[in-house]
Amino acid sequence: MRGGLIFGSEIKAILTHPGIRAELDPIALDQVFTYWSALSPRSCFRGILSLPPGHYLLAQGDQVQIAPYWTLSFLDSDERKHVSATAEISDCVERFRSLLVDATKIRLRADVPVGAYLSGGLDSSTLAAIIKKYSNSRLDTFSIAFSDPKFDESAHQRRMAEFLGTDHQVVFATHADIGRVFPEVIWHAETPLMRTGPAPMFLLSKLVNDRKYKVVLTGEGADEFLAGYDIFKEALVRRFWSRRPDSAWRPLLLKRLYADISELSSTGDYLKAFFGVGLNDTHRSDYSHFIRWKNNRRTCRFFSEAFRASLNTERNGEAEDLQFPEKFKSWGALELRKVTVPPWPTPLKAVFHFWIIASLNSARVFPLASNSMV
């Protein structure tokens, strides 16, 4: 079957083919240690590729076509000015509410009971409230409680569950639990992970599965869409600071934003050393994330000399090629920050799927198809 395509919903399925070898892709691994994720179309396995988000592949005979079925779309500068001058906030809020309710009701159409994650925050609480209002069925909600009080939000979860009258169920996670399941999370994610966040979500998914639920609604993705992450405000502060880079006062705004980071409360040197990198490079497409990516590359010091040599050989002097959507540079600063939020890897295959293909002919390697979330 030389020159054919092999595809599957998981890399594990592809690796069962006798013509495929499990071998690390040094460039993809280097990308993970920079961006937290391999950049499409690479996976961490050599010769096994993923389709870019929002794309499909059509293979007919020896012809392969890759095309987008959906793409991001934001207003350009002139359109933003027009909307800002004419739109009423109340109309925008009502339109958003209507779309959110409609999207939630559509996802309640199922042949099995639908549950909901409840973190106690705005996103999941809003979805749970919508489900209760527009459904006559009982609602089971699921949460994670942590032994570490710095991360535990179970009080907020219980309060919301009691207010809504849901049948609330909780999984308790300790540091030991996270360490215990982390290897299994890696096995499911099929990629190195730079953070342990997916491990508690894995434990939560197990609770849901044990309760025989196949469908749950979550607030995942809302922080990207609604600019909830601190990095959105951080980039705004840095742009404000860049207009007077010698100011001793402007960078202090970051102390208020990251009050939980002890190093920021003791001295301004840490502020300038970390957040001041590339401060005046506001023209960069990756301005909001550049300092994160630059600092994350420090983890590459764990690479062995042999691996670094193989990486240099693989790259052969080629620079990294970050792909951005069409019209990317015409969007506003907020939209640019939304687009450059990394695609966090997750072990929840029921939510994030990657259709992956491998070519048995090393000269022809094509991605196949994807229904991955964008």
How would you sum up this structure, described in words?
It is a single chain. The chain has 374 residues and is an alpha/beta fold. The chain has three domains: 5-73 and 316-359, no CATH class; 88-225, HUPs (Rossmann fold), CATH 3.40.50.620; 230-303, no CATH class. Helix content is 41%, strand content 12%. It has helices spanning 11-15, 26-35, 77-86, 89-106, 122-134, 154-164, 175-189, 198-210, 222-225, 230-242, 253-257, 262-266, 268-275, 290-296, 305-315, 333-339, and strands at 5-8, 48-50, 55-60, 63-68, 114-117, 140-146, 167-173, 215-217, 356-359. β5, α5 (122-134) and β6 (140-146) form a beta-alpha-beta unit. α7 packs across α8 and α10 crosses α16 (333-339). The longest helix is centred in the first third of the chain and has 18 residues, at 89-106. It is globular. It starts with a strand and ends in a 15-residue tail after the last strand.
The CATH architecture of the largest domain would be 3-Layer(aba) Sandwich
Number of strands: 9
Distance between the termini: 33 Å
- Tell me the CATH superfamily of the largest domain: HUPs
Low-confidence stretches: 343-374
Rounded average pLDDT? 82
Q: Level of helix content?
A: 40-55%
